[in-house]
Fold this sequence. Notes:
Pfam families: adh_short_C2 (PF13561). By secondary structure, the chain is of the alpha/beta class. The chain has helices at 18-29, 41-55, 69-83, 106-134, 155-175, 193-196, 203-214, 224-234, and strands at 9-13, 33-38, 60-63, 88-91, 137-142, 180-187, 246-249. It has a single domain (9-187, 222-249), classed as 3-Layer(aba) Sandwich (Rossmann fold), CATH 3.40.50. It has eight helices and seven strands.
Amino acid sequence: MDLGLDGKVALVAGGSAGIGLAIARDLVREGATVSIAGRDAGRLAKARDEIAADLGAVVGTRVLDLRDTDGARAWVEDTAAEHGAAHIVVSNAGGPPAGPTGAFGPDGFRDAVELGMIAHIGLVQAALPHLRRAGWGRVLMVASETIRDIIPQFALSAIARSGLAAYAKTLVHELGPGDVTVNVLAPGYTATDALLGGLTGDLGAETARVAAEAGIPLGRVARPEEVAAVGTFLLSARASFVTGTVQVVDGGRSLGM
Length: 257
């Protein structure tokens, strides 16, 4: 299936590992020019080298903490200047610490909102003028299933990331007619470093245990590439009439309508 991404210029934050890296790889396969950003220079270099070896493509890299608004803007401007345009932006950052609401004071909530909402908005706002200028654009903000179905032990995630849904909905109406879409990807338990870092022993058995405890009907956690496949579709020309949505990818765990 041709996703209509050949020749598009994409920026993928959090692109050195996990879901972000899987999305970046998909975009490269589809012919897009890709720049990835992340906080760890070593992991970025490893991701760049793996993509070059596996897919025969060169991706740009930028060491960046997404909370650095000026740094995010500079990444967008430099990428657009180098390649003549910017069409796709994927905002993706780590999640806040786990725990119930009573485990955190006001500063903890401020930090969570800064990471889980404001950082995403800053990157998107920096990219929007380029998407409008190109006349074609895709915005994808990677959040969590907690945006749709609250999990009490991940209170900060639910509180901070819920704002992205409201931002996406209002931004869609502000953008008006045209071919620029805005969507939120809300993955559930996924086999990323954040999850696997706490697992020991047989990986399959451990992830199945996590799935059972979380109540995932499919009996396992997601693979990053499974989540990325949904995200890549939302970034594609095929999804031209899908905008303002929150797309949950959680193996059926959520019982919300």
